[in-house]
Design brief:
Distance between the termini: 65 Å
Low-confidence stretches: 36-40
Shape: elongated
Largest sheet: 4 strands, antiparallel
Radius of gyration: 20 Å
Order of helices and strands: HEEEEH
Structural class: alpha+beta
Strand content: 25-35%
């Protein structure tokens, strides 16, 4: 009888944890992605589209930095769709990041 109660209690805790994580992700508070060395996102070989970063601006609004082949795209997502804000060569972002890091 004690074993059944312990297993049930552990299952209930895991169920509540899963529901909380689902809710946090729906609210844009929690983000899940594979991390490589030093916390950087892992990039698969041959991948043409990569989500580099995401910033939630409010309920249903976010800004995304995407890498598409050798281009960097900044896209705003909102309730009525998506809007392309900026498009630049990826090398420009890498150069700017290197300059900022050396300053």
């Amino acid at each position: 009888m004690d074993l059944i109660q312990n297993v049930s209690a552990a299952g209930a805790v895991l169920l509540l944890l899963g529901a909380l994580l689902w809710w946090l992700r729906r609210q844009g508070i929690a983000h899940f992605r594979a991390a490589g060395p030093a916390g950087f996102a892992v990039r698969s070989r041959g991948r043409m589209l990569q989500l580099v970063d995401r910033r939630a601006l409010g309920a249903g609004h976010a800004v995304y930095l995407l890498r598409v082949a050798d281009r960097a795209l900044v896209v705003a997502a909102h309730g009525s769709g998506c809007t392309l804000l900026e498009s630049r060569p990826w090398a420009e972002l890498e150069t700017a990041a290197d300059q900022e890091a050396s300053s």
